[in-house]
Amino acid sequence: MEALLFNVSGGFLEGIVRGYKAGLLTQNQYSNLTQCETIEDFRTQLSATDYGNFLANEPLPISTSTIADKATQLLVDQFNFLRSNAVEPLSKFLEYMTYAYMIDNHARTLRSPNVEELYHTALVETPLAPYFRDSVSAADLDDLNIEIIRNTLYKAYLEDFHAFCAALGGPTADVMHRILSFEADRRAINITINSFGTQLTKEQRAKLFPTIGRLFPEGNNALARADDVEQVRQACEPISEYRAFFDVSGAPRTNGGRSESTANLLGDLGDDLSAVAELEDRFFLHEVHLNKLAFLQQFQYAVFYSYLKLKEQEIRSLTWIAECIAQDARDRIHDFIPTF
Fold first, then answer.
1. In the UniProt record, does the keyword Ion transport occur (predicted)?
2. In this structure, are residues 29 and 316 in contact, taking their beta carbons and an 8 Å threshold?
């Protein structure tokens, strides 16, 4: 039934976002960008894509931060157009997508000396009020690390967003369950690895894990007890896709240095330090894969979330290529994750 009525309120914007997705850079366009000798050549190549002349008014030399900022502004403009034309429940879904960025912004402002005033401002003036009220008190701001507060809020947000998507039902619930479950598991793994050698206790660590995801509850319990990366590997062993994150087989790479099909082609996790560095790339690669799959189903809202994440990854890749060109690091220019 939802498919029958979906186009009444959501069909136009779904068509718009699928059109945006068609404008994502292709492998041939990435290849052309990696062959540029200067940032000016890079700008010229981008002008032939959907980015158009977005850098035309920027004086030379153009910094890589300017490229990232301008590309991000294009994405923000697209998102604001979608949001301004959306009606319930899509408008609420798009609002949920903004909460993660609000959490990061508030975590930065909490470093201000007048944190209690900022706390009450967050309770009154932002949609994050329920997360602050239920998870963090004003007294905590003096005692807890800002990162702990941020992860506590993100845990509450993920659980709330997951419940909202489940209530929507249909293909939106199915696709978003896969995406948000991975996001929850990724955060649990990152929190565990980043807590090694810190004052964070295992009990505090466990409280930061979202109560959703494929690792919940057995895998999360194992992560809470983990003392090193090897034990993290063992906790992820029952999930075949996550097992690939720690695969040290060193299979051949493709697609400009990286494969888009699996997460186990990004090198060797030989020690704890390299594991931390490589694991994030593997997470990004798997996230791209899940978000591409979202576009295989119609009449659902997950495409809006997935397009935003794919575009963010594209901007990271553009910034990496531009940085390599600016620093003449040609040997590392292919170390990016293409979206298509």
1. yes
2. no
